[in-house]
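Morning!

As promised:
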Amino acid sequence: MNLTADVAARLGVEQVPICNGQSGSDLAVAASLAALENAAVPGAEVDVVVDYTILPQEWMAPVWNMSGKVQKEIGAEKAFTVGFSGGGATNFLVALNFAAAMLETDEKMKYALLVGADVTIPGNRILNPSSPVSVLGDGASAMVLQRGALGRLVLGTEILSDGANHDVYYIPGGCLANPEDPDLYRMVLDKQRFDAAPKTDTMLQLAKSVLDQAGLKLEDMKYVVYPNISVEDQEAFRIAFDLRRDQICTSNLATHGHMQGNDLVLNYLSLSAGGNLQEGDYILICSHGMGFMAGASLVRI
Amino acid sequence: MFAKIGILEAAYYLPPTRKPLSEVFRDEKQDEKPLAANVDFQRDIGIEAVHVAGQEPASSVALKACKRAVEKAQIDPRDIDLIVSFTSIPEDYIAPTWSAAGYVQKELGATRAFATAINTGGCASYQQTLKSVCSLMSINDRFNLALLFAGDKVPALNHNYYPITVVCDGGGAVLLKKNHDRNLILSVEVITAGKLHDVWWVPGFPNRDPEHPEDHTWMHVAGDIKRFNTEVIPINLLMFRKVIRGALQRAGKKPADVKYYVYPTFSSWDQRAFCRAFTIPPDRMFTAGLQRHGHLQETDMVIDYVDARDEGNIHPGDLVMLTTNGAGFSWGAALVQH
């Protein structure tokens, strides 16, 4: 790929973390243990492990899913596991939505561990090399949800998918459809459809819906959390949502690139670590899921 | 506690081509070590033939089941709020990047839905999906009509899951409706044992033999039979007991209240063992599917439920227990009030 200055500026990615012999599930276990330690929640207290990984795991999903290994390694013996597929970074919001619903409806459950680990297919870091859209990094993240928490409440989530774009962001080979051609075993993006998808309009519609339910407006948001796909993508989102530059965390893009749903957790943690969040602040988490699945979640600190 | 959510309709699709088991065993030779005394895998399994999709994609199998459910329910697909795939084996494209849920959304014209997939649980993915979907529908006014589906097509020459079963291609679909008066989902209980996560798996494309691209065994289900025998089998019925008891307790019901059981179609000896362990008379569990089509992964829960209902085995007012294990590490039970 010819990385011109123009392309580099449009992407805004300077380096990405790369796995060095570790598997995705190894990263997931490490992220899970860190999140549980930060939350002071023993692994044995976890009721459900929810996987929001998007890239292929070390064995094929859905027969195998790394959430079982995470359950074992964190000692979550009373938990059950569940994982979700599709939707790019929005898969994190899918996991958040279902996990919050399970905690709310099941009085026997108290803690949910959300975890994702995305390891890029070798040689597949630049998304759509002919006209790069993003650079993919390796990484994992985890988040602990608690039923009846007093702060950092998930107030609501809205998600919408456009079935016409089910294959805008996928891996054409390595499964039943194209089992033999190694050139097809790579993440591809149909840039024409990606560009044409009404990404910001859909996110605005969903954000308005989730805010309306809480009696809030966009102006009430202290921060908005958004994926690290590119400078170009973040700017389009910021302008569409009429946000100030300091309302959206963009600092991880240059150092991490795009790590699917892990971006949202990483950026949320960066905002939290900045020390600017106060009780009662509102955060909106948005993702366009590459034009297939958009989502918006509202959190009150 | 779930809101009032009922099964509005359920349907399935089996590809028309049937392959006799004699041909499956001829084409898929296995290193078959002897099973328990007096059980011969090929002779005693109890399956006559399986359906094979051939050139038909897995997503097409799934879509046909969904269309049948939608047609039987006489609903407008544009009214569907949520579409969730619970397919538990590899699909046309790689998971978790992709699932057939978006494709089904597109083909049905379910424009206002949100489509996703649950990719865990093996054959118990149906119960995991019921629990997840009923939870979401219970707390969110937006979700009133949900379509759950699975579409199974095993790779060529991977129908023989010795020593468990022989598998069939096919799809199933279930429509759930909030505030429906019949077939209510009273409770769902799910258990997974993380320590058994690696008893069954599919190696995947990165683990292929590049020198032999025609060899697709990297897509075939692989298992640690020794661990299956020493770690899964000894706890299997105990775990069934836990999920069944859990589902009953959640609904405030007793074992004697259950009028009918829907259980997977793995093998004749497995069905007998389950009935014996739970003292279930033969007429209170649907077993006929075994001989007709063999095992359809998670879709067993749909196809056997539909046939049991349509053949008059389930009556209004009956309490029905749908229970299964999955992939050596998961167990699920769902209680449905007809």
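The mean pLDDT of chain B is 96.

Hope this helps with the figure draft.
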